[in-house]
Write a structure and sequence with these properties.
Layout lengths: L1 E2 L3 E6 L3 H8 L12 E7 L5 E11 L2 E6 L4 H10 L7 E5 L3 E5 L5 E3 L6 E5 L9 H11 L34 H10 L4 E8 L7 E4 L2 E10 L2 E7 L7 E3 L5 E4 L4
Antiparallel strand pairs: 1-7, 2-5, 2-6, 3-4, 4-5, 7-9, 8-9, 10-13, 10-15, 11-12, 12-13, 14-15
Length: 250
Amino acid sequence: MALRPRAFVRVAGADAEDYLQRMLSNDIEALGVGQACDALLLTPKARVIATLRVWRRGADDFLLLTEPALGDAVVVKLRRMRFAAKCEVEPEQHTSVIVFGGDEGIPNEDYGAPARELIDADVDPTVAAEELERMRIEAGTPRYGHELDDRVLPAEAGLDETHISFTKGCYPGQEPIARLHYRGHVNRQLRVLEVEAASPGDELVHDGKVVGRVTSAVPGRALAYVRTEVPAGTELSLPSGGSARLLETK
């Protein structure tokens, strides 16, 4: 098990379900009590404000789990857009750990292995933060502040496959999300690389042209945004003189 730093926001009240359904990118109404899903809080232009894991604790009680630096932004945005909706938006203080295996807690698919997220569990971590980061990178999971910011389109990071419902009703950012999904394509995608050594910000070069940029790295593996026309297996060059190989998309 490993510590998972988080910020937590409670949204509760008679209109909580309806409000989150109108504000978030995934189908909140489909959640039963005790169930969870991934979702995005977006700007009207579909830029990411926050990645969220939404846990329905009760019929009218939801806990939003996000990155530690994003809790205040989530509270401010949801309060500002609440208008007449009868629900409270409040930060909460908890701890979170990732447990691999078992059937208790909130499902978590960020690390390439069956895992659950336990809230306020009295346990000692057995997996170091460095190893958890390696698992995230190998799984190709984006993280805000590394692979995600307000310049990244969700589809570039693969979040359209995990955080977005294309059958639910309207939410901020829906129109550009749907337009890109049904009529367009992205020019770059988040990919996993096999590397000798790399650092965030390193440019990736192929045939004399820059085709990507590293966003996260650990010894032997890296995440990077790479031009979509570059096929798996391609050898890329790094500024250090080292090489990187583009792995198959999982």
